[in-house]
Amino acid sequence: MIAVLNSAAVFVLGASRQNWPAGFWVQRAAWIVAALVVSAAVPLLQYAISNRGERARRRALEREQRIELFLAACLVYVVRHAGADFEHTGIQAFAVRGRLHRRQVRLAKVRLGAVPSSGIVWYADKGVVGRCWSARVAQYEDLETHFARYRDVSRSEWEQLPAAVRFGLTYDDFQRLKNKYRIVAAAPIIDRQDRYVGCVTADMPPGDGARSVARAAILASLATTAQLVSEAMEG
């Protein structure tokens, strides 16, 4: 809109100076004054908008850094008190985004080891993250054990399984995830209006080390972290 107004003002000023069309601008001095005002105001408006955008980006970066600090503290806790693997355990924060196609997107994560993202979009009832959303209560699942009997099923066999057994995952989703996780836990982020706005998760890869983790300690740490993240999101 600002660009359109500026272009119109430039056109008016240019045409009036050239007296084109001839005699057209004699009775339209108010248009010329308005064009002058717009030309003077546009740079100020552009600066204000740019400055506002910069402040918003700075606040978003500060918020992300605060959330990452909370996630790092959660990782240290579950390593010390739940026996989780320090290098491969991941702590992540997700937030609900979108209006028509509401989904959970990652706000921040802490993981020392390099683990590629699954690329899966997390909707309600999809995965442990989605189940946390739909139920609004903490979740804890040993996915390696749960899916052990289904690792080699065909696409058609997978699609015949109940959605609850599949955790809402498609066959392609499962192929991406079946070697990625053993333990996945999630705690809901609830805002001051008692709305579900996201979740904080902990995930551990397959392996013997994940079997001995302390469920209660992980869920307690996630619940505390979710509360801190909620405050950071609203602050």
Descriptive overview:
Helix content is 51%, strand content 16%. With 235 residues, it is α+β, with helices and mostly antiparallel strands. The protein has two domains: 2-51, no CATH class; 60-234, GAF domain (Beta-Lactamase, 2-Layer Sandwich), CATH 3.30.450. Strands 2-1-5-4-3 form a five-stranded antiparallel sheet. A hairpin with a 5-residue loop joins strand 4 and strand 5 (196-204). Helix 1 (2-17) packs antiparallel against helix 2 and helix 2 (29-82) runs antiparallel to helix 8. 26% of the residues are buried. Residues 9-13 have low confidence and may be disordered.
Q: How is the topology of this model organized?
A:
Layout: H1 2-17, H2 29-82, E1 90-97, E2 103-110, H3 127-135, E3 139-142, H4 143-146, H5 155-160, H6 163-166, H7 171-177, E4 183-190, E5 196-204, H8 215-234
Helix pairs in contact: 1-2, 2-8
Taking the alpha carbons of the first and last residues, their distance comes to 31 Å
Provide the succession of SSEs: HHEEHEHHHHEEH
CATH C-level class of the largest domain is Alpha Beta
Largest sheet, spatial ordering of strands? 2-1-5-4-3
- Look at the helices and sheets and give the structural class: alpha+beta
- Arithmetic mean of pLDDT: 82
Low-pLDDT windows of residues:
9-13
- Helix proportion of residues, in percent? 40-55%
